[in-house]
Amino acid sequence: MRHVSSAFLVASLAAIATASTTCSVDNKCPESAPCCYNGVCGVGSSCLGSCDPLMSYSLDSCTPEPICKNQTYSFSNLDDSILWDQYLGNSSQYEWTTSGFPKVENGSLMLTMPNQTTGSLVTLNNYIWYGKVSAKIKSSRGGGVVTGFILMSDVKDEIDFEFVGYNLSSVQTDFYFQGVENWTNEVNAAVSPGDTFSEWHTYTIDWTPEKLEWLVDGVVMRTLTKNSTLNATSGVYMYPQTPSRLQMSLWPSGLTTAGQGTIEWGGGLVDWNSEDIVKYGYYYALYKEITVECYNPPEGTTVKGDKSYIYTSDTGLSDQILVSGNSTVLYNLKDTGLNMTAGKQTTASSSSGTSNYESSSGADATSTGFSAGSTSKNAASSSFSDRVTQGSFLAALTAVIFSLL
Ligand SMILES: *[C@@H]1O[C@H](CO)[C@@H](O)[C@H](O)[C@H]1NC(C)=O
Ligand SMILES: *[C@@H]1O[C@H](CO)[C@@H](O)[C@H](O)[C@H]1NC(C)=O
Ligand SMILES: *[C@@H]1O[C@H](CO)[C@@H](O)[C@H](O)[C@H]1NC(C)=O
Ligand SMILES: *[C@@H]1O[C@H](CO)[C@@H](O)[C@H](O)[C@H]1NC(C)=O
Ligand SMILES: *[C@@H]1O[C@H](CO)[C@@H](O)[C@H](O)[C@H]1NC(C)=O
Ligand SMILES: *[C@@H]1O[C@H](CO)[C@@H](O)[C@H](O)[C@H]1NC(C)=O
Ligand SMILES: *[C@@H]1O[C@H](CO)[C@@H](O)[C@H](O)[C@H]1NC(C)=O
Ligand SMILES: *[C@@H]1O[C@H](CO)[C@@H](O)[C@H](O)[C@H]1NC(C)=O
Ligand SMILES: *[C@@H]1O[C@H](CO)[C@@H](O)[C@H](O)[C@H]1NC(C)=O
Ligand SMILES: *[C@@H]1O[C@H](CO)[C@@H](O)[C@H](O)[C@H]1NC(C)=O
């Protein structure tokens, strides 16, 4: 099911709130706002994470992607995370970027979706270029409520586990190549004993250059071989093959403004007076014991360093990815992949005592994709760099998004 994620909703707000420049493969971004982020051109945050190199001004407009890291993640707090629109690309400093209303409960990451909101999204900042990713998950429940555990690349290769809250006895497995939709890619996997909401089950994506497996509690439920995805016309394997980030999400498919197909897929409209909303004030999903095991890059890959992945051609295929020593970190939120430290010189000569975040918080003619931040900041009328106010900032942002839906 092609769907909208929380990140997409946030970016849509940027498009709605400003007469911003949109982008696609045939309509790349201008040099002044070179980064294509969910269809909108911008700088700073737009150049990190979901920045699509194939739709941006040039392949190096998006920042290099932090390389895969073997790691087990546990949650006692969210100190390792940062709001998606404040992250500068240092994945050693912040493991996760967030939007919405995540929290920690009993040592688990809890994504929540309070009444009338679009839920939560937590993304791992290091990319995975083939590897094995696992988590114990308790999904949310209810028609129109979707829990996600997916790998997503910047050119929209995607590998999914999706829990649709009206059927707690199964999980959907799905994949995309460069965002191309094909209904036959979606396959249900039965989950037992118990159900996906009440019981912890372990969900694993095992992804190699040759084949892709979805496992539940260690049992292979589905296998996709790369060979089976050959498009004989183009000679291209329509197989997920580019560096991808782990995204965990809780979002509403059942909004009156969604397409009819999306509403039906998710099992109808969200009930905002459900048991969980009445009792807790939110829908919720739980994740724990998240492990990432990195596999080696495909044979024949050019390796020039150990820091980042870089796209070297506009095919978006795995044989055009380079492992580099290039930095992944922007100096501030006005910088782009074209000159990742341009702000350093500017800041040094024109201001003192101004933090990286603050120096980028003003509305800027070129920061079209990022002006969602400015808009919602006004709505929240709070200091952008004050961590204490981030909850209300996000609440305001989400409220604004919701009122626009
Ligand atoms: C990587 O770094 C080299 C050397 O600084 C630079 O010439 C090149 O443009 C960088 N590549 C990207 C994609 O940022
Ligand atoms: C990234 O963060 C780490 C840990 O906070 C720090 O040691 C490192 O210098 C930072 N790297 C850059 C390029 O800012
Ligand atoms: C956390 O643990 C407490 C005590 O065992 C329990 O009552 C509560 O339901 C747990 N929370 C979740 C979200 O499972
Ligand atoms: C969907 O995928 C199947 C199996 O690979 C293929 O036979 C079919 O042509 C595809 N359909 C579309 C509309 O792309
Ligand atoms: C729920 O999923 C199970 C397992 O795939 C399937 O057998 C059942 O028909 C589904 N129920 C509904 C209501 O779709
Ligand atoms: C995939 O196809 C290639 C070329 O036909 C073949 O050499 C290879 O053994 C196949 N791989 C698998 C895993 O089936
Ligand atoms: C195969 O590639 C051709 C040419 O790029 C494209 O038109 C067609 O839609 C592709 N087939 C499938 C099933 O996606
Ligand atoms: C959720 O919000 C709607 C609209 O404000 C309201 O009608 C409904 O009563 C709320 N649900 C709960 C459980 O408070
Ligand atoms: C991750 O661990 C595996 C062994 O489990 C090892 O082969 C691989 O080189 C490691 N990768 C990285 C990036 O550390
Ligand atoms: C980056 O921008 C700064 C400030 O404008 C400039 O001094 C520097 O030469 C630029 N670096 C590159 C590699 O273009």
From TrEMBL:
The active site is at E158 (nucleophile), E162 (proton donor). CDD domains: GH16_fungal_CRH1_transglycosylase. Residues 1-19 form the signal peptide. Pfam families: Glyco_hydro_16 (PF00722). Keywords: Cell membrane, Cell wall biogenesis/degradation, Glycoprotein, Glycosidase, Glycosyltransferase, GPI-anchor, Hydrolase, Lipoprotein, Membrane, Signal, Transferase. This is Crh-like protein. GO terms for molecular function: endochitinase activity; glycosyltransferase activity. Belongs to the glycosyl hydrolase 16 family. CRH1 subfamily. It is a lipid-anchor; GPI-anchor. InterPro entries: Beta-glucanase-like, CHR-like, ConA-like_dom_sf, Glycosyl_Hydrlase_16. Residues 58-281 form the GH16 domain. GO terms for cellular component: fungal-type cell wall; plasma membrane; side of membrane. It comes from the Eukaryota. It catalyses: Random endo-hydrolysis of N-acetyl-beta-D-glucosaminide (1->4)-beta-linkages in chitin and chitodextrins. Its main location: membrane. Dual chitinase/transglycosylase that plays a role in cell wall architecture. Chitinase and transglycosylase activities are coupled. Required for the polysaccharide cross-linking at the septa and the cell wall. More specifically, transfers chitin to 1,6-beta-glucan in the cell wall. One of its GO terms (biological process) is fungal-type cell wall organization. It is found in: Cell membrane. Its EC number is 3.2.-.-. It comes from Aspergillus homomorphus (strain CBS 101889).
